[in-house]
Write a structure and sequence with these properties.
Elements (H helix, E strand, L loop, with lengths): L1 H15 L8 E5 L2 E4 H10 L13 H21 L5 H15 L3 H10 L4 H22 L7 H10 L9 E10 L4 H13 L4 H8 L10 E6 L5 H7 L11 E2 L3 E11 L6 H30 L3 E3 L2
Antiparallel strand pairs: 1-2, 1-7, 3-4, 3-6, 5-6
Length: about 300
Amino acid sequence: MKRIILTAILLAVAFFSGAEIVDRIVAVVGDEVITLSELERAWKNDELGIMRASKKLSEREYLERMIERKLIEQEVKRQGVSVSAQEVAQAIERKRQQMGLSSEEFRNLLRAQGISMEEYRKQVKDNLVLAKLVAKEIRSELEVTDEEIKAYYHQHKEQFRTPERVHLFHIVVRKQDKGKEKIEKIVCEYKKGADFSELARKYSEGEEAKQGGDLGWVVLAQLKPEVREIVKELELGELSPVYEDEVGYHLFLVVGREKSTQIPLDEVKDQIREILYHQHFEKQYQIWLERLKAKTYIDIRL
Protein backbone atom coordinates (compact mmCIF):
# COMPACT_ATOMS: atom_id res chain seq x y z
CA MET A 1 0.00 0.00 0.00
CA LYS A 2 2.83 2.40 0.91
CA ARG A 3 4.44 1.70 -2.45
CA ILE A 4 1.22 2.43 -4.34
CA ILE A 5 0.65 5.71 -2.48
CA LEU A 6 4.25 6.82 -2.98
CA THR A 7 4.15 6.11 -6.71
CA ALA A 8 0.81 7.89 -7.06
CA ILE A 9 2.14 10.99 -5.32
CA LEU A 10 5.18 11.14 -7.58
CA LEU A 11 3.04 10.82 -10.70
CA ALA A 12 0.53 13.42 -9.46
CA VAL A 13 3.22 15.98 -8.72
CA ALA A 14 4.64 15.55 -12.19
CA PHE A 15 1.21 15.76 -13.84
CA PHE A 16 -0.15 18.84 -12.05
CA SER A 17 3.10 20.75 -12.36
CA GLY A 18 3.15 20.08 -16.08
CA ALA A 19 6.73 18.89 -15.64
CA GLU A 20 8.21 16.33 -17.94
CA ILE A 21 9.41 13.22 -16.12
CA VAL A 22 13.16 13.03 -16.81
CA ASP A 23 14.03 10.68 -13.93
CA ARG A 24 12.74 7.28 -12.94
CA ILE A 25 12.70 4.98 -9.97
CA VAL A 26 15.28 2.15 -10.14
CA ALA A 27 14.57 0.62 -6.75
CA VAL A 28 11.98 0.71 -3.98
CA VAL A 29 13.23 -0.15 -0.49
CA GLY A 30 10.46 -0.24 2.09
CA ASP A 31 8.78 3.17 1.85
CA GLU A 32 11.78 4.85 0.16
CA VAL A 33 12.94 4.99 -3.43
CA ILE A 34 16.25 5.26 -5.28
CA THR A 35 16.10 7.16 -8.55
CA LEU A 36 18.24 6.71 -11.62
CA SER A 37 19.87 10.11 -11.14
CA GLU A 38 20.77 9.22 -7.54
CA LEU A 39 22.29 5.94 -8.66
CA GLU A 40 24.28 7.50 -11.50
CA ARG A 41 25.64 10.24 -9.24
CA ALA A 42 26.54 7.81 -6.48
CA TRP A 43 28.14 5.33 -8.90
CA LYS A 44 30.12 8.01 -10.71
CA ASN A 45 31.43 9.60 -7.49
CA ASP A 46 31.56 6.34 -5.49
CA GLU A 47 29.59 7.95 -2.69
CA LEU A 48 29.64 4.69 -0.73
CA GLY A 49 33.43 4.55 -0.93
CA ILE A 50 33.47 0.87 -1.90
CA MET A 51 35.18 0.93 -5.30
CA ARG A 52 38.94 0.71 -5.69
CA ALA A 53 41.25 0.46 -8.68
CA SER A 54 41.06 -3.33 -8.43
CA LYS A 55 37.32 -3.46 -7.68
CA LYS A 56 35.05 -1.72 -10.17
CA LEU A 57 31.32 -2.37 -9.85
CA SER A 58 28.67 -2.10 -12.52
CA GLU A 59 25.70 0.26 -11.94
CA ARG A 60 23.53 -2.74 -11.10
CA GLU A 61 26.04 -4.03 -8.54
CA TYR A 62 26.36 -0.54 -7.08
CA LEU A 63 22.58 -0.27 -6.82
CA GLU A 64 22.54 -3.47 -4.76
CA ARG A 65 25.07 -1.95 -2.35
CA MET A 66 22.92 1.22 -2.16
CA ILE A 67 19.90 -0.90 -1.30
CA GLU A 68 21.86 -2.63 1.45
CA ARG A 69 22.97 0.75 2.79
CA LYS A 70 19.38 2.02 2.79
CA LEU A 71 18.20 -1.13 4.59
CA ILE A 72 20.74 -0.50 7.36
CA GLU A 73 19.79 3.19 7.55
CA GLN A 74 16.15 2.23 7.96
CA GLU A 75 17.10 -0.23 10.71
CA VAL A 76 19.06 2.54 12.43
CA LYS A 77 15.89 4.66 12.53
CA ARG A 78 13.78 1.75 13.78
CA GLN A 79 16.17 1.00 16.63
CA GLY A 80 16.98 4.62 17.43
CA VAL A 81 20.75 4.11 17.26
CA SER A 82 22.73 7.33 17.68
CA VAL A 83 26.23 8.68 18.34
CA SER A 84 27.31 11.74 20.29
CA ALA A 85 28.98 14.85 18.92
CA GLN A 86 32.03 13.89 20.97
CA GLU A 87 32.29 10.49 19.26
CA VAL A 88 32.12 12.19 15.86
CA ALA A 89 34.79 14.73 16.84
CA GLN A 90 37.07 11.98 18.15
CA ALA A 91 36.68 9.96 14.95
CA ILE A 92 37.56 12.99 12.81
CA GLU A 93 40.57 13.76 15.01
CA ARG A 94 41.83 10.16 14.72
CA LYS A 95 41.54 10.36 10.93
CA ARG A 96 43.43 13.66 10.82
CA GLN A 97 46.24 12.27 12.98
CA GLN A 98 46.48 9.10 10.90
CA MET A 99 46.97 11.25 7.80
CA GLY A 100 49.59 13.36 9.58
CA LEU A 101 47.87 16.64 8.69
CA SER A 102 47.31 19.81 10.65
CA SER A 103 43.73 20.98 11.17
CA GLU A 104 44.12 23.57 8.42
CA GLU A 105 45.69 21.06 6.01
CA PHE A 106 42.87 18.62 6.72
CA ARG A 107 40.24 21.27 5.96
CA ASN A 108 42.08 22.22 2.77
CA LEU A 109 42.11 18.59 1.67
CA LEU A 110 38.36 18.31 2.17
CA ARG A 111 37.83 21.60 0.35
CA ALA A 112 39.90 20.33 -2.60
CA GLN A 113 37.55 17.34 -2.76
CA GLY A 114 34.52 19.63 -2.76
CA ILE A 115 33.45 18.69 0.77
CA SER A 116 32.79 21.15 3.56
CA MET A 117 33.68 20.26 7.15
CA GLU A 118 29.97 20.17 7.98
CA GLU A 119 29.31 17.68 5.17
CA TYR A 120 32.28 15.56 6.25
CA ARG A 121 31.07 15.61 9.85
CA LYS A 122 27.69 14.29 8.69
CA GLN A 123 29.39 11.52 6.67
CA VAL A 124 31.42 10.48 9.71
CA LYS A 125 28.32 10.54 11.92
CA ASP A 126 26.36 8.39 9.47
CA ASN A 127 29.21 5.87 9.23
CA LEU A 128 29.59 5.70 13.01
CA VAL A 129 25.86 5.12 13.46
CA LEU A 130 25.89 2.31 10.90
CA ALA A 131 28.97 0.75 12.50
CA LYS A 132 27.37 0.89 15.93
CA LEU A 133 24.23 -0.86 14.67
CA VAL A 134 26.21 -3.57 12.89
CA ALA A 135 28.33 -4.12 15.99
CA LYS A 136 25.22 -4.40 18.14
CA GLU A 137 23.54 -6.87 15.80
CA ILE A 138 26.50 -9.02 14.84
CA ARG A 139 29.42 -8.94 17.27
CA SER A 140 27.38 -10.53 20.04
CA GLU A 141 27.14 -13.60 17.79
CA LEU A 142 30.88 -13.83 17.10
CA GLU A 143 33.25 -16.14 18.91
CA VAL A 144 36.67 -17.45 17.89
CA THR A 145 37.72 -20.54 19.83
CA ASP A 146 41.25 -21.78 20.57
CA GLU A 147 40.42 -24.94 18.60
CA GLU A 148 39.64 -22.87 15.51
CA ILE A 149 42.90 -20.95 15.91
CA LYS A 150 44.94 -24.16 16.16
CA ALA A 151 43.19 -25.68 13.13
CA TYR A 152 43.81 -22.56 11.03
CA TYR A 153 47.47 -22.50 12.05
CA HIS A 154 48.07 -26.13 11.03
CA GLN A 155 46.16 -25.70 7.77
CA HIS A 156 48.11 -22.56 6.81
CA LYS A 157 51.58 -23.23 8.19
CA GLU A 158 53.33 -21.75 5.18
CA GLN A 159 51.61 -18.47 5.94
CA PHE A 160 53.43 -18.32 9.28
CA ARG A 161 57.05 -18.74 8.34
CA THR A 162 59.80 -16.15 8.47
CA PRO A 163 61.08 -15.43 4.95
CA GLU A 164 64.56 -16.51 3.88
CA ARG A 165 66.78 -13.41 3.96
CA VAL A 166 70.28 -12.49 2.86
CA HIS A 167 72.51 -9.59 3.88
CA LEU A 168 73.45 -8.34 0.44
CA PHE A 169 76.10 -6.03 -0.98
CA HIS A 170 75.88 -4.72 -4.53
CA ILE A 171 77.95 -2.95 -7.18
CA VAL A 172 76.46 -1.69 -10.44
CA VAL A 173 78.22 -0.09 -13.42
CA ARG A 174 76.31 1.52 -16.29
CA LYS A 175 76.90 0.15 -19.78
CA GLN A 176 78.13 3.40 -21.27
CA ASP A 177 81.74 4.61 -20.83
CA LYS A 178 83.31 1.17 -21.18
CA GLY A 179 81.15 -0.39 -18.47
CA LYS A 180 82.15 -3.94 -19.43
CA GLU A 181 85.83 -3.17 -18.97
CA LYS A 182 85.13 -1.38 -15.70
CA ILE A 183 83.22 -4.29 -14.14
CA GLU A 184 85.96 -6.73 -15.18
CA LYS A 185 88.51 -4.46 -13.50
CA ILE A 186 86.46 -4.52 -10.29
CA VAL A 187 86.33 -8.34 -10.35
CA CYS A 188 90.07 -8.47 -10.85
CA GLU A 189 90.76 -6.10 -7.94
CA TYR A 190 88.44 -8.05 -5.65
CA LYS A 191 90.18 -11.32 -6.46
CA LYS A 192 93.49 -9.67 -5.57
CA GLY A 193 92.16 -8.89 -2.09
CA ALA A 194 90.45 -5.51 -2.40
CA ASP A 195 87.59 -4.85 0.03
CA PHE A 196 84.15 -5.05 -1.65
CA SER A 197 82.83 -2.01 0.22
CA GLU A 198 85.80 0.10 -0.84
CA LEU A 199 85.32 -1.02 -4.44
CA ALA A 200 81.64 -0.07 -4.21
CA ARG A 201 82.45 3.41 -2.89
CA LYS A 202 85.07 3.87 -5.61
CA TYR A 203 83.31 2.44 -8.68
CA SER A 204 79.61 1.67 -8.11
CA GLU A 205 76.99 3.91 -9.68
CA GLY A 206 74.13 2.66 -7.50
CA GLU A 207 72.36 4.64 -4.79
CA GLU A 208 73.90 2.42 -2.10
CA ALA A 209 77.49 3.21 -3.21
CA LYS A 210 77.97 5.68 -0.34
CA GLN A 211 77.16 2.86 2.09
CA GLY A 212 79.78 0.66 0.52
CA GLY A 213 77.19 -1.14 -1.60
CA ASP A 214 75.31 -2.38 1.48
CA LEU A 215 71.67 -3.21 0.63
CA GLY A 216 71.03 -4.53 4.13
CA TRP A 217 68.91 -7.61 4.83
CA VAL A 218 66.82 -8.48 1.78
CA VAL A 219 63.98 -11.04 1.51
CA LEU A 220 65.13 -13.50 -1.12
CA ALA A 221 61.66 -13.91 -2.61
CA GLN A 222 61.45 -10.16 -3.29
CA LEU A 223 64.46 -10.12 -5.61
CA LYS A 224 64.09 -10.33 -9.38
CA PRO A 225 63.91 -14.04 -10.35
CA GLU A 226 67.19 -13.86 -12.28
CA VAL A 227 69.00 -12.18 -9.39
CA ARG A 228 67.40 -14.54 -6.87
CA GLU A 229 68.75 -17.57 -8.75
CA ILE A 230 72.27 -16.10 -8.62
CA VAL A 231 72.16 -14.97 -4.99
CA LYS A 232 70.66 -18.12 -3.47
CA GLU A 233 73.58 -20.21 -4.77
CA LEU A 234 76.30 -17.98 -3.30
CA GLU A 235 78.32 -18.98 -0.27
CA LEU A 236 79.02 -16.33 2.35
CA GLY A 237 81.76 -14.03 1.07
CA GLU A 238 81.58 -15.47 -2.44
CA LEU A 239 81.46 -12.96 -5.32
CA SER A 240 78.68 -13.51 -7.83
CA PRO A 241 79.19 -13.84 -11.57
CA VAL A 242 78.62 -10.61 -13.50
CA TYR A 243 74.89 -10.16 -14.07
CA GLU A 244 73.83 -7.97 -17.01
CA ASP A 245 70.45 -6.28 -17.46
CA GLU A 246 69.04 -3.12 -19.03
CA VAL A 247 70.56 -1.00 -16.24
CA GLY A 248 74.13 -2.23 -16.53
CA TYR A 249 76.54 -4.78 -15.06
CA HIS A 250 76.04 -6.05 -11.49
CA LEU A 251 78.06 -7.84 -8.82
CA PHE A 252 76.59 -9.27 -5.61
CA LEU A 253 78.15 -10.39 -2.36
CA VAL A 254 76.28 -12.25 0.42
CA VAL A 255 77.68 -11.65 3.91
CA GLY A 256 74.81 -13.11 5.94
CA ARG A 257 71.97 -15.58 5.46
CA GLU A 258 68.87 -16.44 7.49
CA LYS A 259 66.85 -19.53 6.62
CA SER A 260 63.06 -19.62 6.69
CA THR A 261 61.73 -20.85 10.04
CA GLN A 262 58.31 -21.79 11.37
CA ILE A 263 56.82 -19.14 13.67
CA PRO A 264 55.40 -20.73 16.86
CA LEU A 265 51.63 -20.69 17.30
CA ASP A 266 51.82 -18.56 20.46
CA GLU A 267 53.48 -15.73 18.50
CA VAL A 268 50.77 -15.57 15.81
CA LYS A 269 47.73 -16.49 17.91
CA ASP A 270 46.37 -12.94 18.03
CA GLN A 271 46.96 -12.49 14.29
CA ILE A 272 45.00 -15.67 13.51
CA ARG A 273 42.23 -14.66 15.90
CA GLU A 274 41.88 -11.39 13.97
CA ILE A 275 41.77 -13.24 10.63
CA LEU A 276 39.07 -15.63 11.85
CA TYR A 277 37.14 -12.81 13.50
CA HIS A 278 36.89 -10.95 10.19
CA GLN A 279 35.86 -14.14 8.39
CA HIS A 280 33.11 -14.80 10.95
CA PHE A 281 32.06 -11.15 10.89
CA GLU A 282 31.65 -11.14 7.10
CA LYS A 283 29.61 -14.35 7.23
CA GLN A 284 27.31 -13.09 10.00
CA TYR A 285 27.01 -9.70 8.31
CA GLN A 286 25.71 -11.33 5.12
CA ILE A 287 23.26 -13.46 7.12
CA TRP A 288 22.00 -10.36 8.94
CA LEU A 289 21.58 -8.46 5.65
CA GLU A 290 19.54 -11.33 4.23
CA ARG A 291 17.28 -11.12 7.28
CA LEU A 292 16.74 -7.40 6.68
CA LYS A 293 15.98 -8.05 3.01
CA ALA A 294 13.53 -10.80 3.89
CA LYS A 295 11.42 -8.53 6.11
CA THR A 296 11.52 -5.45 3.82
CA TYR A 297 9.73 -4.83 0.54
CA ILE A 298 12.38 -4.47 -2.20
CA ASP A 299 11.64 -3.89 -5.87
CA ILE A 300 14.60 -3.48 -8.26
CA ARG A 301 13.64 -1.90 -11.59
CA LEU A 302 17.02 -1.51 -13.30
